[in-house]
Structure formats: structure tokens, C-alpha cells
Amino acid sequence: QVQLVESGGGLVQPGGSLRLSCVASGSISSISVMGWYRQAPGKQRELVAVSTSGGITNYVESVKGRFTISRDNAKNTVYLQMNSLKPEDTALYYCNIRGTTEWDTTPRKYWGQGTQVTVSS
């Protein structure tokens, strides 16, 4: 099975920074797209940042200039550097990847368990 392990969440004051990490392991054999989603209480899950295997990145408008997504393909790892954090960034952040496995060549999306980010004074 494919496993995604996230780390780096926590409590931070407004204006602070956090760096989220997500490592994919298990039967994953090929990864194309890696990204981060978030969901706040009472709100719909939204795409925060995405990175393709070709190095193309994109961000939701509200985090542009503050967040940076990066990846290490050799390690099947994706990062999200979050700077100048605001209270409205508070949410459960999920790692997501699209890839194939040894016994399933159809690309599928896999999710991490989520890591809580709380921005509060």
C-alpha cells in the first residue's frame, strides 16, 4: 500500500513560519503531481499549492508570495514552506500525490492523514 507521512504542523503566531513535509513510501512506483490541500472547520477543502513532475508550480491566490512548494523526486518528498502566516491560514493540511503502483498502472490520487496548522496570537 502507499503511505504518505506528513510532519511540520503546529501552533504559530501571526507572521510566523512553518515548513510542512510529506514523504511517500510503500508500493508507489511513479509520481507525477504532488500537492497540498487544506480544510478549515465549516469550509470546503481547497487546493493550496501543486507541483508537477516537470517543475511547474501553482498556488491559490490567497497564499501567493507567502507559500512555496518544492519537491525532491528521488526521495518522493514534497514540502510546503509557509511564511507570513495569517489566522485565516488555520486549517488541517493534507498532502496529496498522483501516481502508480507496481500492480496498478492506472494513476490514482493518494492522501496523507493531515497535519494541523493553527495561527493564533
Number of helices: 0
The SS-based structural class is: mainly beta
Low-confidence stretches at least 5 residues in length (pLDDT < 50)? none
User: The biggest beta sheet, please?
Assistant: 7 strands, mixed
Query: Could you tell me the strand content as a percent range?
Result: over 45%
Overall number of strands: 11
Q: What radius of gyration results from the CA coordinates?
A: 14 Å
Helix content: under 10%
Shape: elongated
Q: Report the span from N to C terminus.
A: 40 Å
The helix/strand series, from N terminus to C terminus, equals EEEEEEEEEEE
What does this structure look like?
With 121 residues, the protein is mainly beta. The protein has strands at residues 2-7, 10-12, 18-26, 28-39, 46-51, 57-59, 67-72, 77-82, 91-101, 108-111, 115-119. Strands 2, 4, 5, 6, 9, 10 and 11 form a 7-stranded mixed β-sheet that branches. The protein has a 4-stranded antiparallel β-sheet with strand order 1-3-8-7, with no helix packed on it.
